[in-house]
Amino acid sequence: MFLIMSGAYVTEDLKAEFGTIPPAFLPLGNKRLFQHQIQKIPKGKSIYLSLPDSYKIPEVDNTWLAAHNINIIRTPVNLSIGEAIVTSLNIAEEMSSNSLSILFGDTLLESYPTECDIIATANTLDNYTWSTFSTKNEISWKENKQIICGYFNFTHPKKLIKCITIERWDFINGVNRYNNENGLSNFKVKKWYDFGHINTYYHSKTAFTTQRAFNDLKINQTQITKSSKNNNKILAEANWFESIPPMLRVYTPQYLGCTEDKLGNYCYSLEYLHNISLNELFVFTEIPTSIWDNIFTHCIKFIDYCKEVKNVKNEKFFNELLTVKTKDRLNDYLLSEKIKIDEKWTFNKNIKCSILDILDLSKQYLPAESKHATLMHGDFCFSNILYDFRADKIKVIDPRGITHQGQISIYGDILYDIAKLSHSVLGMYDWIIAGYHQTSVDHAKRELSITLPNDNKIDKIKSSFLNKVCKHYNLTPLNIYAMQIQLFISMLTLHSDDKYRQSGLFANAFRIYSIMKELIK
User: Fold this and answer.
1) Which residues make Cβ contacts (< 8 Å) with residue 287, sequence separation at least 6?
2) What's the whole-number mean pLDDT along residues 421-431?
3) DSSP H stretches of helix in 57-155
4) Full residue range of the structural domain in which residue 482 is found
5) Where among 137, 167, 197 does a domain terminate?
6) pTM of the prediction?
């Protein structure tokens, strides 16, 4: 039996940034923490996850947990650790002779020990009062660099319950009693991630990201260095950071320069910020709508500052960024999937339309391109926007810095940035990327459907965004949705590595088309 203890809510400092959620539901690497925890559990184990009895599990998470056969245990939120463990084990009713593994909900190990009757320990540099395991095999609470890191194994679960109960549900004393009667060993783990406090959360997130970074990203606690096989892409991004005016540098991490190695490959470095990206905030947290209102205001201010930096050349970019790029990429997708642009599909069993119909409606409602080319981020979507709660600021990363023809330029049309931001909010792009969608595509029957999360919280965030952007930029909802269609169709070829995700993006273009048809009525 494997028990993940997440029956309380996160600490107050974490609540301020993520809302009232259990620790196992914290975001990490565009997933929930529990998804990483469960992924590492050996096959064949019965898995239990304790949660507060007052917590409403989002439907998308319920679906994921059910699909992975995770047993949910509901416990009162005000229990001590010892009380929560005894309660969880009694509710589980799995008291066989099999061993019990316990993992605290705010903890992630690189791998779980296979040894029995152990207490996992690890080093820490953080200044908190931890539980330690001494050379005399006794647990105590004190400041120490070698601390208990939240994983235990007991070969006699019934004896553990007995020991904790005798010690009046005190977990530490109960484990000490179990140790005296049965014996426990100290197992030192090499890699441990602690997400129990705001500081340890961001430190652990940095370490976790560093371990899984692609070869083109190198991260440490102070800076991130980006490289690519595509030198032009790196030079374009570096040029953007070098060329933006001082008033806009408050919206970016500190730029640390661009260098070339002996082989002629380029890389550039930025200050590494311990902030969370908007895509993780949108998909995985429970922050109030008022914070989103504030974030959207900051995003609009950033676009407005970009709008003030005009290109001296009389260039136009809107059609190139949207319709031309979409047409070029769409042809590749149609060929690879053997789809004709004018053949009819049935969406959600009631709407019949072709890709050509969708594009024609989109073109009909695209806004007129801006009179002047201005500074543009070029990929102003949630995953490239960080939010600093304490400073109440946004920071942008990964600018485009290059035209569709491959020419390095910081200029474009701010409508494209508005479109990219909209496809994260209204288009639900980040939910699809996170796998939080149910999509069905039947190529033989030319039928497709998509279901995305839709609750009151999401509706309020969408409504707030749409009202702000439409009013501020004198656009209509049809203008906003029309631009998104171009984006979702143009990105299809970029997601061929994951067919289910690609199908979700394809079906989403039909979903947005159906929204536009409703608005036109």
Assistant:
1) 17, 18, 19, 281
2) 98
3) 59-67, 81-92
4) 276-520
5) 197
6) 0.93
